[in-house]
Amino acid sequence: MTFRDKGVDGRVESVRPTEETVLEVDALRVEFPTEDGPVRAVRGVSYRLERGDSLGIVGESGSGKSVTALAVMGLLPNTARVHGSVRFQGTELLGLSDAGLSDVRGSGIAMIFQDPMTSLNPVYTVGHQITEGLLRHNPGLSRRAARDRAVDLLATVGIPHPRRRVDTYPHELSGGMRQRVVIAIGMSNDPAVIIADEPTTALDVTVQAQILEALETARAETDAALVLITHDLGVVAGHTDRVAVMYAGRVVETGSVEEIFYAPRMPYTLGLLGSLPRMDRADDGEGGQERLTPITGSPPSLLNMPPGCPFAPRCPMREDLCDRDEPALRMTGVPAHRSACHFAERLVDTEAAEVFAAEGADAAALARIAAEEQAPTPSQPEDTV
């Protein structure tokens, strides 16, 4: 899995895909025209997935996570202006006809949406909705064989009594069961890529774990590459190999799960982790509970983006350079770990409480961090892809 970002304008250096490459996104940009000007929802996102890869995309609401996925699937409204390149197994999807995209959706790339009630048709049984996709992409398949396959799929995703459930309607199932049905539909044609957009939203913790387990089963059964979109860092920690953190329409940090969770090099990522309760660090060492360190402020408007780093207004490490120049996604010195921060080196061995000095925290921590690097040098750009 490879990320490339040679600048904030979306220009990237070409990478030759391997035989295992299933999805390659280059300099993807999405704008929505409004009376007040264009809303730049996605700004130069690039990544490549191979068979079996798993990528978690995290960020606050409005960061561009879902719009990126919808652009890949060709599901954005006609008013959207989409630029860049999306190649599935070597075929360019941007500009492809509706008929061509229909052939790819379901059989090549499957998408699992966050609300199963909007994904499932209430007037058809779940069995009918599973077999519909099977018959669409497998013309030689008989209806009986398709029904048997639907029963097997329901069993695979953990639905009890699948032969009985195959004839039920969506409203007769619980929210968790409906989401399992959506996963069954997604894996029915052995797709090469599964995109799951907030698949556990509005489900209780126990059901969330079951849905994620069903998603892992779907990935294992199909050997598909998985893109898991969520705002929950805890979800990606246990179910993906790599993480991309998005902010204001672009990727601001990417790396392995271990690198992102234990050695973040972007203040925004550090702030997200600081606001996440962690069982392994609940004690502050003095018999009390460790304080969470939330990020103050709100993300910028994508309608009129300010110059410089979009996170600067919320960043305690902000300096004049941050207000002038938006940093590119650069190597941090660790292979495949990249950060869009001018002062990524300052975050080495730094805790969230030291940067986001909440009330009661050590307010002098920021001065200590700055003093450790009198003349910070921005991260060096990546030389090779």
Walk me through this protein's architecture:
With about 375 residues, the protein is an alpha/beta fold. It has two domains: about 20-240, P-loop containing nucleotide triphosphate hydrolases (Rossmann fold), CATH 3.40.50.300; about 265-275 and about 300-370, no CATH class. About 30% of the residues lie in helices and about 20% in strands. The chain is built from 14 helices and twelve strands. It has an eight-stranded mixed β-sheet with strand order 6-7-8-3-9-10-12-11, sandwiched between helices. α7 (about 175-185) runs parallel beside α8 (about 205-220). The relative contact order is 0.13.
Could you tell me the mean pLDDT? 86
Q: Work out the oligomeric state of the chains in this entry.
A: single chain
How are strands sequenced across the largest beta sheet?
6-7-8-3-9-10-12-11
Number of helices in the DSSP assignment: 14
Order of helices and strands: EEEHEEHEHHHHHEHEHEEHHHEEHH
Strand portion: 15-25%
Q: Give the CATH H-level superfamily of the largest domain.
A: P-loop containing nucleotide triphosphate hydrolases
